[in-house]
């Protein structure tokens, strides 16, 4: 069994018809990770624009009690990254 575009459409509510959006993106990934997750990723834990999903669970084990909204949003982003990178779009080794 595998994830299909129809599964993605139903699960995430994303449209999957029409022209694809492609192109090169010039992005400062360290700055993006810093603003979205709270710290830049060490050079040995990322390859290009990809993040090693296994490292995220080590850096964000469980959401502590009594944290602010910013920290909750960071943990939510990590959860979504793990969901997409580890479950929906899992890479076969």
UniProtKB/TrEMBL annotation:
Signal peptide: none
Span of domain Aminotransferase-like plant mobile: 1-91
Pfam families: PMD
UniProt-listed InterPro entries: AminoTfrase-like_pln_mobile (IPR019557), MAIN-like (IPR044824)
GO BP of this protein: meristem maintenance
Protein name listed in UniProt: Aminotransferase-like plant mobile domain-containing protein
Source organism phylogeny: Eukaryota, Viridiplantae, Streptophyta, Embryophyta, Tracheophyta
């Amino acid at each position: 069994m595998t994830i299909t575009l129809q599964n993605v459409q139903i699960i995430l509510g994303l449209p999957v018809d029409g022209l694809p959006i492609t192109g090169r993106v010039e992005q400062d990934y360290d700055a993006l990770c810093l603003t979205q997750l709270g710290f830049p990723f060490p050079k040995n834990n990322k390859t290009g624009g990809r993040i090693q999903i296994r490292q995220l669970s080590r850096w964000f084990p469980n959401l502590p009690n009594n944290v602010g909204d910013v920290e909750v949003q960071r943990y939510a982003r990590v959860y979504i990254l793990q969901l997409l990178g580890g479950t929906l779009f899992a890479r076969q080794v």
